[in-house]
Write a structure and sequence with these properties.
Elements lengths: L8 E4 L11 E7 L1 E6 L9 E5 L4 E4 L8 E7 L11 E6 L6
Antiparallel strand pairs: 1-6, 2-5, 2-7, 3-4, 3-6
């Protein structure tokens, strides 16, 4: 749960799973966030865009290992979560089948 304007998650890669060939699916619920996606190195240029409640983001194929993170939350941009905030549901395959 992300609450408040100062809530964020720094740039990172999702590398902990054994199944790195499988996509990561992210569902945003609640307040809008400013989401940042960069390159394969932390120092690569990046771009930010908004993810609103109900938006789905898929990082798959070549984009699977790009650095990404949440710059900030825009409080009050949704009434879905009581008291405000943002929930992110992340779906991933953690091991090869």
């Amino acid at each position: 749960m992300y609450r408040g304007e100062k809530a964020k998650m720094g740039l990172h890669q999702d590398r902990d799973e054994a199944a790195l060939d499988a996509p990561v699916l992210s569902v945003s619920l609640g307040d809008t966030c400013v989401f940042r996606v960069g390159g394969y190195e932390r120092r690569d240029k990046s771009k930010s865009f908004r993810l609103s409640s109900g938006d789905v983001l898929v990082l798959g194929g070549a984009s699977r290992l790009r650095f990404h993170g949440v710059d900030r939350i825009i409080p009050g941009s949704s009434q879905l979560v009581e008291g405000g905030g943002r929930l992110n549901l992340t779906l991933r395959r953690v091991r090869n089948v």
